[in-house]
Q: What sequence folds into this?
């Protein structure tokens, strides 16, 4: 059986629809048994007992009504199944989104993005046939044959037992089969998800591939992945065919044995003609649900593998542990709800903070002790991999420190309600992704009730009015995937406008490493300088000029804090900062 434990929790999302689908399946069997039973009685009365036609007619009416009822029940069953899959898929999608939000960008960074997308997209779709066809039919194929075999045993024990043995032969052969099928369905999904991830990476990285002249290599890899998927498809098809053949042989043998036993019973006088007829006609109904289950095998095969991939995301250990005492912070400048930050911004303190990324051997941060005063701008500098991003990710609470605490206005951020905490941080990073299809959509994420005048005001303060003016429909111009229609400098200014609009008093600035043209550079720098006013700012600096404009600089190396001080003091001290500048490894 292609069942995994999590599948039970999926159908629990729509218990009534699941029960309705199963009930409809069982009712179809009942309708068919009624039809065949009435026909057997009609044949017995008309041909064997030679009763008048009037005595046969009601039985034919019952048989016809049962046939019509079967049609109606099938329609109702299909409606229940559609409802079941809509509810389950909707809920699984919602749970996946919630899980991905909880797992956070830190977890996503360690994953292959294309695989996660394949699971969230096609994986969820693959569940459709699994939950709405395979799982309900599995229940029907358990309930209906059991009841019919018991009835058969009551009617004629030898024939009933023979049908029962044939019906259980199939499931009995399953344990070994299930393992084989389980392995193959996993391998099939692996092949599919790898190909899907590779295709998405190739599309996303097309400019780099062309630049490196590596499109040929990537094509060869994709051809190899396609071949592997084809092999897995073939082996899945072979298993499916073998399963169907085995089922058909078991059913055929069972039918022959029951028919022979009914014939022998009739000849020996053990049973009458009516019982023999009922047995011969009814035996097909014992096996029909089992054969229908086999016909949903493919849906089960794909759905089981997808369910396992979904399970991996839903069951992944969460990087954050929400403490029972998590609370909404009071009086600490939580989202001001306007366009201006609370005066001065909050104080930030890293207290003996150590952190190692999950799965990483080396610590990213070791014993960091760092205070940032309200309204201060602190620049973080250090070689690539020194731990600058990790430090700001801990402030944003992508992760909790392994040791130590991060405090905002004296309050451990682990005890603050996560959404409140994140609402008071604005991030302007070098790879800004514009969400939503237009600039307006993106801005409104920060403040859904903002009116046009407010939007124009923040765009003005972000030196972004000329960006909007250059677009055919202004802030309502479609921007393409992640704002691809805008240049890097334009996207940064939109991000600055968003930060103004959010009113968040804590600012994380990840300075762009790529150079902008002179005018854009000046516009971005001016907008950033305005944005920093009245906010506490943590700045990942890549340029001497930027770091020099901060109130203080903190130098990180291999996860340790080497020195902190004003730019002038550090430059004069001839310490690590001076070394890094001299070696030109910090600043591009
Ligand atoms: N998601 C992750 N999983 C495992 N290790 C990680 C992860 N993110 C960062 N690291 C490791 O943690 C260390 C610090 O990385 P971090 O990104 O904080 O450095 P950085 O100073 O910001 O570097 P850069 O300037 O290149 O962005 C590095 O050794 C890095 O390899």
A:
């Amino acid at each position: 059986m292609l069942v995994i434990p999590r599948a039970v929790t999926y159908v629990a999302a729509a218990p009534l629809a699941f029960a309705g689908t199963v009930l409809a399946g069982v009712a179809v069997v009942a309708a068919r048994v009624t039809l065949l039973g009435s026909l057997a009685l009609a044949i017995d009365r008309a041909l064997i007992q030679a009763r008048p036609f009037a005595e046969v007619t009601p039985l034919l009416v019952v048989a016809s009504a049962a046939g019509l009822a079967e049609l109606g029940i099938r329609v109702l069953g299909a409606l229940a199944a559609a409802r079941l899959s809509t509810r389950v898929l909707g809920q699984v999608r919602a749970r996946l989104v919630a899980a991905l939000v909880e797992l956070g960008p830190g977890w996503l960074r360690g994953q292959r993005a294309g695989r996660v997308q394949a699971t969230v997209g096609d994986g969820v779709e693959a569940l459709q046939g699994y939950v709405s066809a395979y799982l309900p039919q599995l229940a029907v194929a358990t309930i209906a044959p059991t009841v019919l075999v018991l009835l058969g045993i009551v009617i004629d024990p030898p024939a009933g037992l023979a049908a029962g043995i044939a019906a259980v032969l199939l499931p009995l052969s399953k344990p070994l089969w299930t393992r084989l099928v389980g392995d193959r369905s996993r391998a099939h999904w692996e092949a599919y998800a790898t190909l899907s991830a590779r295709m998405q990476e190739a599309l996303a990285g097309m400019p780099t591939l062309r630049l490196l002249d590596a499109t040929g290599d990537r094509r060869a890899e994709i051809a190899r992945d396609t071949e592997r998927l084809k092999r897995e498809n073939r082996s899945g098809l072979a298993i499916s065919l073998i399963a169907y053949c085995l089922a058909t042989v078991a059913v055929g043998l069972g039918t022959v044995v029951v028919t022979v036993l009914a014939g022998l019973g009739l000849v020996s006088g053990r049973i009458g003609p009516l019982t023999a007829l009922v047995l011969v006609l009814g035996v097909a109904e014992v096996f029909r649900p089992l054969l229908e289950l086999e016909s949903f095998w493919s849906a089960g095969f794909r759905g089981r593998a997808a369910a396992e991939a979904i399970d991996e995301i839903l069951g992944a250990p969460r990087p954050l542990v929400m403490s029972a005492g998590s609370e909404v912070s009071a009086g600490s400048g939580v989202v001001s709800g306007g366009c201006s930050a609370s005066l001065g911004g909050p104080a930030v303190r890293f207290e003996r903070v150590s952190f190692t990324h999950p799965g990483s051997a080396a610590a990213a941060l070791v014993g960091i002790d760092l205070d940032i005063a309200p309204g201060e701008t602190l620049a973080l500098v250090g070689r690539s991999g020194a731990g600058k991003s990790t430090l700001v990710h801990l402030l944003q609470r992508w992760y909790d420190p392994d040791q130590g605490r991060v405090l905002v206005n004296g309050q451990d951020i682990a005890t603050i309600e996560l959404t409140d905490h994140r609402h008071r941080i604005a991030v302007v990073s070098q790879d800004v992704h514009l969400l939503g299809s237009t600039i307006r959509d993106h801005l409104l994420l920060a403040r859904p009730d903002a009116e046009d005048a407010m939007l124009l005001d923040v765009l003005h303060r972000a030196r972004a009015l000329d960006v909007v003016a250059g677009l055919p429909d202004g802030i309502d111009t479609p921007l393409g995937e992640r704002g691809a229609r805008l240049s890097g400098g334009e996207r940064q200014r939109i991000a600055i406008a968003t930060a103004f609009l959010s009113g968040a008093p804590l600012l994380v600035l990840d300075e762009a490493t790529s150079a902008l043209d002179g005018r854009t550079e000046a516009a971005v720098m001016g907008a950033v300088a305005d944005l920093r006013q009245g906010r506490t700012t943590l700045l990942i600096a890549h340029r001497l000029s930027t770091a020099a404009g901060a109130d203080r600089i903190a130098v990180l190396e291999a996860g340790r804090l080497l020195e902190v001080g004003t730019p002038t003091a550090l430059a004069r001290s001839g310490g690590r900062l001076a070394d890094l500048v001299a070696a030109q490894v910090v600043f591009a």
Observations:
- The pocket of adenosine-5'-triphosphate is lined by residues 106, 109-110, 357, 360, 364, 382, 384-390 (CB under 6 Å).
